[in-house]
Amino acid sequence: MSDYKKYIVPLLKGEPIKEYTKFENKIKKLIKKSFSTYFSSEVERLFKKYYGDTYLDDLFQEFVLRLIQTKDLLLHLDYISERYLVKIIENLIYRQLSCNFKYSPKELSFESVIGGEIEEEVIASEIFPSYTYDCIKELKIGHWMKLLITKLKEPEQEVLCYYLYKRLLNREVKTQLPLSTLYKRWERLKKKIRKLIGSDLEGEDWEELKEFFELYMSKVCEKRLYKKLGN
């Protein structure tokens, strides 16, 4: 797994980056990968419409600004993984969607960054206005809901609902599947969900996902249970 710290630390310290072009190309590939993995093709077309052919360049610039804003945190990390950077990119895309592409980042002079200076105005700027948070969260939840409803097969929906009832409500719903089969299917399903929504169903990610899965239970699981009881 790639460690991006060797590129990012010199950038944040205002030191020359030996492989800056390589770093830029890597991030642009991650942006493309994020579009294809976490969003529909219509979303990328929207970015091309509003940004033009330079949409990858513009998103890369926003990405660098985000790194600068979180400079203190990044400098203390032992390892900067691809997954961490993809999360940043995903949030940048959601933010533009949440404000209908009205957000305009400050221009960043890469020459000044590479040359050893980072303007105080850029460091201190509010890159993520607080009022966009709820919009971004709602967009995420709506996007995740659509993904799981359309991408999970009926047996997978059943396994997910069984797990959610048990974890969120401490309640076991009736199922014809043996527990050993449920466990094996759940282990496979966790990996599939992680690929779909870009988050793990354990650890810190779970706290962010709880609100979404509570909604999923009310819209999907309760309806399934209602049908199963013959009502």
| Biggest sheet features | none
Head-to-tail CA distance between termini:
50 Å
SSE arrangement, N to C: HHHHHHHHHHHH
CA-based shape: elongated
Mean pLDDT: 76
Percent of residues in helices: over 70%
Q: List how many beta strands DSSP finds.
A: 0
Give the number of domains.
2
Nearest-angstrom radius of gyration?
21 Å
Strand content: under 5%
Number of helices: 12
Low-confidence stretches: 106-135
Class by SSE composition: mainly alpha
Secondary structure: elements and pairs:
Blueprint: H1 5-13, H2 20-38, H3 41-51, H4 55-69, H5 71-75, H6 82-98, H7 110-114, H8 120-124, H9 133-151, H10 154-169, H11 179-197, H12 204-228
Helix pairs in contact: 2-4, 2-6, 4-6, 6-9, 10-11, 10-12
Could you name the key traits of this structure?
231 residues; mainly alpha; 12 helices; elongated
A few lines on this structure:
With 231 residues, the protein is an all-alpha fold. Helix content is 71%, strand content 0%.
Structural features, described:
- By secondary structure, this protein is an all-alpha fold.
- It folds into 2 domains: 124 residues, no CATH class; 94 residues, no CATH class.
- The chain contains 12 helices and no strands.
- Helix 6 crosses helix 9 and helix 10 packs across helix 12.
- The longest helix has 25 residues.
- It is elongated.
- About 13% of the residues have low confidence.
